[in-house]
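Hey L., structure's done. Input below.
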Amino acid sequence: MIGAEILVKTLIANGVDACFANPGTSELHALAAFDSMPGVRCVPTLFEGVATGAADGYARMTGKPAATLLHLGPGLANGLANLHNARRARVPLLNIVGDHATWHRRFDAPLTSDVEALAAPMSGWVRTVPDAASVARDTADAIRAALTPPGQVATLILPSNSSWDETPAVEPIAVAPPAPAAPDAGALRAAAQALRGGARVVLLLNGAATSAAGLALAGRIAAKTGAKLFAHTGATRIERGAGRVAVERLPYPIDLAIAALSGAAHVVLIGATEPVAFFGYPGKPSRLYPDGCRIHDLAPPGIDALAALRQLAEEVGAAGEAEPTLSLALPGLATGALNADSIGQSLAALLPEGAVVVDEALTSSTMAYTPCAGARPHDWLTITGGSIGIGMPLALGAAIACPGRKVVNLQADGSGMYTLQALWSQARENAEVVTIVFANRRYGILQWELGNLGFKEMGENARNCTDIGRPDLEWVSLARGMGVEAGQATDAESFNRLLKAAFAHKGPFLIEAVI
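Output:
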């Protein structure tokens, strides 16, 4: 067998059944091997940032790695921003990058680069396959690395000759995913003591702790002890809606986040990292919690968060508590002016059961998140690493992972332009994605940050670089040019009509919501 065939055979043996691809010459033997050994669905993308973002979305919804197939160092570089988000999401992702034949590198051809050096900052594991005989072992090691709790980006670099050279056929190596480590007994006792002590305690959750099962346990603890629940600002996946325990996200704006944690004597981290500001601001702290507040790192990423919650519930006597689940509470459809609030209200009213919401609405995010708390059961995926351009690719990956569920992408217009090509892949795959573009014709988050940094007025250059009108982006034309059905809403009534039509439509649909 040639190395590429062994690669694909190993992927199939380990249940890696999706590959988001933007290949070039050095990857063509791998591409041909996917045809010769059916079992992996190859999804074409027109930009590598779409491939890496889609693999992230697939992993968030399945818990297993999808593969990417990228072209040498420049192709990998195009995908790095969304690999940053995947690294912060702590999802399993197998990043396959082609490279020149090992004997060709010394000639310094135009596409030659240090692929390992490019991959390292966004990967938890990197290896170059030296020859075809090593493909089975190295691919299996990459999959095991990707699945190592809590999940990480594993980059496997496949030189052309490792792909096309023949080697004796081997049995594929199937790997057993490593189990998460148990929580530390001392940290558990300290967290339980804090919860029993009467002071204000915050449970900050992410990973498995924001699954329905995790939130049920956290809800029991909160009901028993009075603790406050927050999901991490960039939570990987939150299972929410009617029948589940409500959880607020820690706010993004630094002043609101500091206020949310004000008075906390203890913050218990379960699947989450220390709450810090996204940026440093003059005269403001980097840590969001008060001076003197004690941080309990009960279940850092890689530790079994559900086990930590179960044991913590037992320690504080909450195991028998009934979790405070939400009843179905659907608002009426919004009327009148179209804005972030009316969009959130109508979305909550119409959101189908089992929907997956991909949230890159940025400045409009809270206005959608809050009213959907009592909507029909759904999942909520956020931008984990702050690198914009994740929304449309993440929605593509979630739709490939969950073909029976509607995916709703709440998309800021500025960040949507980073990876607009994802719409073409959605159309090509007939993905069930409803994209709602919040078309405010500006980088609202940057204009807000200018004020946060103390600038009272915007000068001409600041205005020009944060205003994306003049000319206005024509989202309906852009979507239709990619093969996606689309319509424009300018008031709540037209938005409601389009949203109903989008949910009834088979395949992708885009709504340009002019706000």
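The longest helix spans residues 72-89. The radius of gyration is 23 Å.

-- N.
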